[in-house]
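ok so i was messing around last nite and threw this chain in just to see what happens. nothing serious, just curious
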Amino acid sequence: MALRTVEQYKASLRDGRLVYFRGKLVEDVTTHPVIGVAVDHAAIDYEIAHDPTYADLAVHVDSATGQKYSRYFKIPSDAEDLISRSELIGTATRLGQTVVVLIKEIGTDCLFALHLVAKQMDEKLGTHYLPQVQAIYHHCRNNDLAMAVAQTDVKGDRSRGPAEQDHPDYYLRIVERRSGGIVVRGAKVHTSVTPNANELFVIPTRTLTEADRDYAVAFCIPLNTPGLKQIASPYGSGHDNSFTHPISSRHKMMETLTVFDDVFVPNERVFMNGEWQFAGALAKTFVEFHRFTAISYKLPLLDLLVGSALLIAEQNGINRAGHVREKLTWLISYAETVRMLTRMAAIQCTMWDGMAVPNTAVVNIAKLHFASNYHQALMHIQDLTGGLLVTGPAEEDLKGAETSKYIERYLGAGSRVTANERLRTINLISDLTTGELGGYHAVLAIHAEGSLEAEKLTILREYDQERAKNYARSVMVR
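result:
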């Protein structure tokens, strides 16, 4: 089953998993009025593998065995592999109308990191984790599974480490070690696509000390494992009108608070069991792969912002004004800078045990550039659009016998554009920038895949400061 169909994917989610939405247990995530939208959205990754238009990009053919499997699982061996991966992520997100699919992207980010760090642990500590990582990799790849990653702990008092907390479960921890496996307790937050994935990877969120040994844990379990409970966020639910919400009525990604209520994990699915020295390395290595995924899936969002800005400026008849052209130029430069940095991160990749790793400095520069300028981009496009973003009429008014004639007369732009066309553009921009989807994108820009401060620290760390200082010294007059 190297390439599952959409129907096979949906059937695999009817497995007795415990998902709660607004306090109620969800009987079937595939038919739930909100989570079902997320399932249909996630199915994009399965649709494109069978679509001749995208199959060459979405499917990798093993040159040695002839086996076909999703390109997401292709372990990158050079820059071209990373470029193809980025293009696939961007294509799926474009089909998702700026909402990333993520059911294979994030899981393979984690698998790549686990391969590298498990080998380090085995070499330095004498453990035997790499064969187990390779086994779960082949299990997920050969069965074309959807994957989620739980990394962010709830943290409690953030001025204290895991072992220093008043409540010992603010970070996920091992509470029992048995001959056949471990028992874990705690919770992870911001876990994306969890209700509609098959396997859940769990990794540390930070560097740990020897006192935090029981918090140094990594593993993978099916989403229907006993004791695993998901509390789904309702944010962005309830939009079913495609006129006023052209994106969010059809595309959604679920987020959960994921609770581990004394969950048993078999030894063969454990990839870190107290090796606190490598917790930070695993967290960092995953993030560097995942930030490359992030800047790849941001590109369709930036393209849509630019395209919408150009369209509304034209429809409003202001596209020739000097200040408007300045804003449009800024938006285009912003989008294209992120695009070029994304490609450069692949081209300037580094090799680690035969795996191509995106250039850490360039990835973080791209992510910081995107995140620190995103709200400026929203300001520009909202300025170009006008107040109808939040005061415009409903679709029912446009169709109403008594109201439609007034809307057509007063909200169009003469013979150039009808009220229907103009309102559809405005509603697209509103969905993208002012509503819950817009808020979701705005918060993701700041917090997803690591904070702005984390990116700044990485850039500072990665830059060759001695080279720059030595050059400065050489120029000084002596």
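not much to say yet. The two ends are 71 Å apart (CA to CA).
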